[in-house]
């Protein structure tokens, strides 16, 4: 059965790969790529809609489909503060999820982060954990959460620390006790998400979490 996929965060490391791979997936007939700025479509299966994430309710009709892929995110440096980062990584993503649930989307697929924990004293894993907890309360039939570590791939913004880590970690993390910190490419995460989206529901509400080892086995 052909499905309509909605993607938020389609300009990021995972999001760009998601849009490209979904556009080639046999089980997907249409991809609604919801972005903050215009982007070119990879083929005629992809439709780009520019939206204002501060006014999401004005675009609620765009959240009608079968699947919602949520890979929206920013950094504290880009956002300017932890509070501003939280608006993007938690508030906007949660509102997108709420709109999709209200409009009958059955399957929600979220790019979260390793270490996500709503009780964490650190801001980033805390906001990721809070988002995971809150979307699990929504009326999706199926929820798939992906928890990658450092993401490798082309970025619009230059992050010196991440560039250094991307060069060093693949070697360092060959040590068994550091294996769970090894980086993964955005393309690999997207590939796993597309594969999961193609599977049929087993019945009843499903909540599944894919850790690094399950997405990118050693």
What proportion strand?
15-25%
Mean pLDDT: 87
Percentage of residues assigned to helices = 25-40%
| CATH hierarchy, class | Alpha Beta
Q: In the residues, how many domains can be counted?
A: 1
The CATH architecture is: 3-Layer(aba) Sandwich
The tally of helices reads: 7
Main sheet: strand order = 3-2-1-4-5-6-9
Shape: globular
Structural class: alpha/beta
Contiguous runs where pLDDT drops below 50 for at least 5 residues: 157-179
Describe the model:
The protein has helices at 13-24, 76-79, 82-102, 123-135, 160-172, 186-198, 212-215, and strands at residues 3-8, 28-35, 46-50, 67-70, 107-111, 142-146, 151-152, 184-185, 206-210. With 218 residues, the protein is of the alpha/beta class. The protein has one domain (3-150, 185-213): NAD(P)-binding Rossmann-like Domain (Rossmann fold, 3-Layer(aba) Sandwich), CATH 3.40.50. The strands form two sheets. A seven-stranded parallel beta sheet has the order 3-2-1-4-5-6-9, sandwiched between helices. Strands 7-8 form a two-stranded parallel sheet. Strand 5, helix 4 (123-135) and strand 6 (142-146) form a beta-alpha-beta unit. The protein is globular, with a radius of gyration of 17 Å. Residues 157-179 have low confidence and may be disordered.
């Amino acid at each position: 059965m052909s499905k309509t996929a909605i993607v938020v965060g389609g300009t990021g490391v995972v999001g760009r790969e998601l849009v490209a791979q979904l556009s080639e997936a046999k089980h997907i007939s249409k991809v609604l790529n919801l972005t903050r700025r215009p982007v070119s479509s990879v083929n005629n299966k992809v439709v780009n809609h520019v939206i204002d994430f501060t006014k999401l309710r004005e675009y609620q009709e765009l959240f009608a489909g079968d699947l919602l892929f949520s890979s929206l995110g920013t950094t504290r440096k880009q956002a300017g503060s932890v509070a501003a980062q939280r608006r993007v990584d938690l508030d906007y993503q949660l509102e997108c999820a709420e709109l999709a649930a209200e409009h009958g989307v059955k399957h929600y697929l979220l790019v979260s982060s390793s270490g996500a924990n709503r009780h964490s004293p650190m801001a980033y894993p805390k906001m990721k954990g809070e988002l995971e907890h809150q979307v699990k309360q929504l009326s999706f039939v199926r929820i798939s959460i992906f928890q990658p570590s450092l993401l490798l791939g082309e970025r619009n913004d230059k992050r010196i620390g991440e560039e250094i880590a991307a060069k060093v970690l693949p070697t360092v993390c060959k040590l068994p006790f550091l294996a769970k910190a090894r980086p993964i490419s955005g393309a690999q995460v997207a590939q796993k998400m597309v594969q999961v989206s193609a599977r049929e529901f087993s019945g009843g509400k499903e909540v599944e979490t894919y850790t690094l080892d399950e997405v990118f086995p050693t």
